[in-house]
């Protein structure tokens, strides 16, 4: 489901980023991010800032878990950020499910680049 108030261009940017994430194509994702992007370390806590810290975080993450994230709903918030409801399936490297559920990712997009992402509970 797509909220009519959210920008189609922003939605496509996010879809492209999630597809690249699921394909483990870090370089493709980083091209969609501001050089000083602020990204949550959901798996570790806190944030990383900038392309190289994001790259290092994802490499550590993917060495231990196998996440797949699929956007299912977009809503533009009053503050201009884009709320993305995602189906998130996380498995360990043996294929055992660690998490399977919905999560809210909130993206700040500036100049057609992802500037920041935050994770919120669905509660």
Write the layout of secondary structure elements.
Layout: H1 8-22, H2 26-30, E1 33-40, E2 47-49, H3 51-62, E3 65-76, E4 82-92, E5 97-110, E6 113-120
CATH class: Alpha Beta
Largest sheet: 6 strands, mixed
> What's the helix-strand series?
HHEEHEEEE
Estimate percent helicity: 25-40%
Strand order of the largest sheet: 2-1-6-5-4-3
Question: What portion of residues belong to β-strands?
Answer: over 45%
Mean pLDDT value: 93
Structural class: alpha+beta
What is the CA-CA span between the terminal residues?
A: 19 Å
- Shape, principal axes of CA atoms: globular
CATH topology category name = Nuclear Transport Factor 2, Chain: A
Radius of gyration: 14 Å
* Spans where pLDDT lies below 50 across 5 or more residues: 1-5
The CATH architecture would be: Roll
Number of domains: 1
Find the count of extended strands (DSSP E, 2+ residues): 6
The tally of helices reads 3
């Amino acid at each position: 489901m797509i909220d009519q108030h959210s920008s189609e261009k922003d939605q496509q940017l996010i879809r492209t980023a999630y597809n690249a994430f699921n394909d483990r194509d870090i370089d493709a994702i980083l091209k969609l991010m501001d050089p000083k992007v602020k990204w949550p370390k959901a798996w570790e806590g806190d944030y990383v800032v900038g392309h190289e810290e994001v790259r290092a975080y994802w490499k550590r993450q993917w060495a231990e878990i196998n996440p797949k994230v699929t956007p299912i709903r977009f809503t533009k918030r009053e503050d201009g950020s884009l709320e993305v409801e995602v189906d998130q399936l996380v498995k360990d490297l043996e294929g055992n499910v660690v998490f399977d559920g919905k999560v809210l990712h909130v993206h700040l997009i500036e100049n057609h680049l992802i500037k920041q992402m935050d994770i919120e509970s669905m509660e």
